[in-house]
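User: structure tokens for this one?
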Amino acid sequence: MNLNRTIKITLLAFFLGAGTNVGLGDEGKAKVQHLTGKESVNLVNSEAKLIVVDVRTPEEFDEGHIKGAQNIDFNGIDFPGKLAKIDREAPILVHCRSGRRSQASLKTFESLGFKNVNHLDGGIQAWAEAGGALER
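Assistant:
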């Protein structure tokens, strides 16, 4: 009789606890917005606290970049460690040349707990096509 009661209590506790994790996976997950070149130009011009992260190589960065951008090479040494030094609460605009590397970098932003990440779809090419200024 005692064993039967123990089993019932264990099952009850299991089923009551089973629903407690619902929704926790989305808590703390990066909110990613995918922006066009024009939307990105508007964001840079309107958001004073925006941090622009350029994940291209230093050589590509030197050829022309968005004013004030931080160059953190996606394929470089300790990409996650360098990203971790950035304010996770600040709005971020991330890009590369065409969007492929920056798209891949979104998993790292998410795993580090960044809250507000904007991805420049089409990369610096889309930025330039939208009339965005480049600094050398």
